[in-house]
Amino acid sequence: MRKIIFVLLAGMTLFIPGSLYARTYSIVNVSNTVDPGFPSPTPTPHRPQMPAFHPILVNINEDSGDLCILFNQSAEDVNITIKYNGVTIDEDNLSVLNGQCIIYNMNSYEEGLYTLSIESEGNIMSQYEISIYGTGDY
After folding, report:
1. SS3 for 24-70, per residue?
2. Which helix (H) or strand (E) holds 127?
3. What is the mean pLDDT of the chain?
């Protein structure tokens, strides 16, 4: 009888949903916006530099799994695609305003490597790789 109860309890742990496990999220920009064959100018040491302007900022909350895509300029016909192993998981086609933040909750996604692509008028504006892994604290 003890063996049966032990086997049942052990089997039930296999059916705990993955969303209850602790997870780690990371994001890496893989956009290739700079032509490596084009020589970059070297500024003089005393020339003040303007801060870089990024039309899109992407961040992921490592605790909640909320992916925030912040647009720093208005754009028409923006296509946001999240793919896993080449299969489209989420896709939105929308117009965005300056300062608008689009949020995706990735907490329900399976562990693995995802590709986030942000396109406008057929041109890739930004592309990212998002990694989701379990931390083993379960």
Report:
1. EEEEEECCCCCCCCCCCCCCCCCCCCCCCCCCEEEEECCCCCEEEEE
2. strand 123-134
3. 78
Give the tokens for residue 118. Answer: 């942000």
DSSP secondary structure letters along 54-118: -SEEEEE-TTT-EEEEEESS-EEEEEEEEEETTEEEEEEEEEE-TT-EEEEEGGGSPSEEEEEEE
- For residue 11, pLDDT over 70 is answered with no
Residue found by looking up tokens 């117009």 in the block = 95
Measured CA to CA, the distance from residue 88 to residue 84 in angstroms comes to 6
| 20 Cβ contact partners less than 8 Å away, ≥ 6 residues apart | 138
Instruction: Note the maximum CA span of the chain.
Output: 81
| Distance of alpha carbon 71 from alpha carbon 102, whole angstroms | 8
- d(CA 84, CA 109) in angstroms, rounded, equals 10
State how far the Cα of 136 lies from the Cα of 8, in Å rounded to an integer.
Answer: 22
Predicted local confidence at residue 22, as pLDDT? 72
pLDDT digits (tens, 9 = 90+) for 41-92: 454 555 555 555 678 899 998 888 899 999 998 888 999 999 999 899 999 9
